[in-house]
Each structure stands twice: as C-alpha cells, then as structure tokens.
Amino acid sequence: MSVFLKTRITAVGPEVADLAEGGVLILFADGAPEELAEVSVLHAVVDGPSDDAPVPGTRVSIGDGVSAEVTAMGDAAWNKVREIGHVVVNFNGATAVERPGEICASVVEPDKLVAALKTDAVITIGA
C-alpha cells in the first residue's frame, strides 16, 4: 500500500484537545483563518496528497502512539485534502460518513489521541 498523505503538525489549536477527546480531529493546512485554527491541527505536507483517495482499511497513524484504519470516506473528503489541506477525521468506527467532507476511522483511545497531537508529530495516511 502506498502513502496517500504524509504531513507534519505545525501547530495545535487551543480547542483541539476537547474535540480529540470526543474522537474528532480537524486538519487544516498552514495559513488557515484564525477562527478555524483554534479548533484545528495545522500541518505542512511532507508527501502527497495522492490523486487517489484512501479506501477503507487504509492505515492512519499519528506520531508514535496512535494507529487506526479508515472505515469510511466521504465523497468530497479527499478533494478537500488535495485542494486546501482540510479534512475532518472522526475516530468513531462508522462504516458510513455523516458528512461528505469527513473520513471515518476506527476508534482510538481519546487520551492517546490527545497526547499524539504535538508540534512536529507526523500524520500518515497509508503504508
């Protein structure tokens, strides 16, 4: 399996931990408006994003402590990643998304997710 996206966390908004405790991660590329940056993990792409979208079963890793698998992909989610570096990852294990711009992934421990969201940690979708 190839790497669909590899990106480095550049900043973590002050409201990110609250969302992560609920299993929600919002990614935005560096330069996001301030009101979005408050709830987002800002990132700088290292590799990708690929033209093809990840499929269910694709690995998602965050830092050294969090690993999950994609369980569902919204119709618009990967286009948003490619165009503006934005996506919502919901670690709820759902096999169908509620919103077209969302990626669902397997459930992870909230405290491990919060701990993994640190500046310079790498987020990888794919192998």
UniProtKB/TrEMBL annotation:
<feature type="modified residue" description="Phosphohistidine; by HPr">
    <location>
        <position position="43"/>
    </location>
</feature>
<protein>
    <submittedName>
        <fullName>PTS system, glucitol/sorbitol-specific IIA component</fullName>
    </submittedName>
</protein>
<dbReference type="Pfam" id="PF03829">
    <property type="entry name" value="PTSIIA_gutA"/>
</dbReference>
<dbReference type="GO" id="GO:0008982">
    <property type="term" value="F:protein-N(PI)-phosphohistidine-sugar phosphotransferase activity"/>
</dbReference>
<dbReference type="GO" id="GO:0009401">
    <property type="term" value="P:phosphoenolpyruvate-dependent sugar phosphotransferase system"/>
</dbReference>
<dbReference type="InterPro" id="IPR004716">
    <property type="entry name" value="PTS_IIA_glucitol/sorbitol-sp"/>
</dbReference>
<dbReference type="GO" id="GO:0016301">
    <property type="term" value="F:kinase activity"/>
</dbReference>
<dbReference type="InterPro" id="IPR036665">
    <property type="entry name" value="PTS_IIA_glucitol/sorbitol_sf"/>
</dbReference>
<dbReference type="GO" id="GO:0005737">
    <property type="term" value="C:cytoplasm"/>
</dbReference>
